[in-house]
Specification:
Layout: H1 3-6, E1 12-19, E2 23-25, H2 26-38, H3 42-50, E3 55-57, H4 72-98, E4 105-112, H5 121-129, E5 136-141, H6 148-162, E6 165-173, H7 185-193, E7 196-204, E8 210-219, E9 227-232, E10 235-240, H8 244-261, E11 272-275, H9 280-290, H10 294-307, H11 314-325, E12 333-340, E13 344-351
Parallel strand pairs: 4-5, 4-6, 11-12
Antiparallel strand pairs: 1-7, 1-8, 2-3, 6-7, 8-13, 9-10, 12-13
Helix pairs in contact: 3-7, 4-5, 8-9, 10-11
Length: about 350
Amino acid sequence: MTAGAASRAVPRVAGIGVSTPPSIDQQELFDSWFEPRWAPDRVGRYLWRRAEVDSRHCVVDPRSEDISHWSTADRMRRYVDEAMPLGKAAIGAALEQSGVAPAAITSFTVVSCTGYATPGIDVLLASSLGLQPRTRRTVLGHMGCHAALPGLAVAADSVTAHGGTSLVLCLELCSLHEQPPDADPQQAVVHALFSDAAGAMVVRDDGPGLEVVEISSTTDWASRDAMTWTVTDFGFRMTLSPDVPRLLAVQVREQVDGLLARHGLQRGDVAHWAVHPGGPRILDVCADELALDDAAMAPSRDTLREHGNCSSATIVLVLDRLLRDDPPPAGAPVVAMAFGPGLTLETALLKA
């Protein structure tokens, strides 16, 4: 081993913090808001039940505030107002867990596909939290549900290349993109699944935490239209093909096994799995293709049931739950997986 290799920084997730807006009971939301507008038939009721979500967290409660015909400009103004307190709370929790002071942050990455502003919340949060003016800032926008892992890769690469301490914030306010009612069943699925949350991760090169061993990505160019997130005059509109689980099934086993094999590991060596709960069928596909039992999938299914799909922030919620409920022993491998437009599958090998 060369001297340079011996001194190479090893990035670790040293702290995780999450924050959510108020919770909404899924059945109450269906009865009072969704059914009269979106689901006057058996198909709509079936799709809502199939989401397997019991509660979600939303900055906009449609029962008291109908924003379905708001302009995109109005939604973006609301995004900044709502994002700031949620982002500060998640970052504060991650910093406290890691024992890192805001002034020690040298790199700050913000991940979001649900809102934009310039100066953005990266600038506003950095200023209000007391980050140094020389802190490097990166914004990953409009990547979708898998973007937490590219965000983590940016943070890990910064620590490896420059040392210091990196901060990642994934903040998604999907409830700001309620669409005008129509008969599209895909929109019924979207409205039944998506929710709001913020998740932050502190990455540094010393102390305890989850070592970032490798983050890999594959994109099925031919399936790029299976999942879209389009800017319209009435916010952002998602399309979600029912073929997505089948298309992911083609990729997931090969990519996960390849990632593990590069590090001399097999699926049986993995202590914990953090699978992005894009929906119940996606979780079923991952369980089937990777031969994962109910215990392995529990953190992801519990997160879906209690939070819904919070886009990029969801995998941070899963990791937070996993580490709180059943911390892996030292040296144990952990695999995180997330899926998004492209059609993209991101996988991360972490080690306690």
